Amino acid sequence: MRRGELLALQWGAVDLDAAALRVERSLEETREGLRFKEPKSDAGWRTIILHSSTVAALRAHKIAQMQYRLAVGADKLDAATLVFTDMHGKPLKPHTVSRAWRRIVEARSLPRVTLHALRHTHASILIREGVDIVTISRRLGHGKPSVTLDVYGHLMGGADKSAALAIGKVLK
Questions:
Q1: What angle do CA 131, 144, 50 make, to 5 degrees?
Q2: Residues facing residue 20 across a β-bridge
Q3: Which of 15, 90, 154, 170 has the most neighbouring CB atoms within 10 Å?
Q4: β-strand pairing of 26-30 with 14-15
Q5: What pTM does this model have?
Q6: 65 is in which domain, residue-wise?
Q7: Is the pLDDT reported for residue 158 higher than 80?
C-alpha cells in the first residue's frame, strides 16, 4: 500500500476475520492541511488479502488502540475510526510518518531505505516468488499490468529459464 492509503485506512475497511482490507481512499497533505481523497484510478479501489502475521499485528494494534481510547475517555472504535492515528485520534501527517520511519531506521542502524521502498520491496519479493504480474499489479493498485512491468520488469530475468523448462516439459 502507499503511505497515504495506509494513513486513510479505516477499521470499517478492514475485515480481520476474512484477512482482507479494502483500499478506498488516501490521505494527502496540502498547503491547506490534510485531506482525504478517492483513489486516482479504478484500479486504486481494491481489496488486499492479508497474511496471518499481518492480521495478528492488526488485531494487537486494534486492542491497544481500544485500550488507549478507553483510558483517555475517547469514543469507542467504529467503522470510521482510522487504523493509524496520533494520540488524539487525528490523522497522522504523511511527512511526520516518513520522518519517524527515518529515525527508526537510523536508531537501529538499518540500511537507509525509505518507507516507500517497502512497497517496492513487497513487489520485488512477489516477483521473485513467481506471483503473476496481473496479481501484483492489482495488489499495488496500478491502472494496468504494463505499469507494473515498466517499473519491475527488470527483476523478471529468471523467467525465461522457467519458460524453457515449462515448454520442455510439455514437449517430452
A1: 45
A2: 15, 49
A3: 15
A4: unpaired
A5: 0.86
A6: 1-112
A7: no
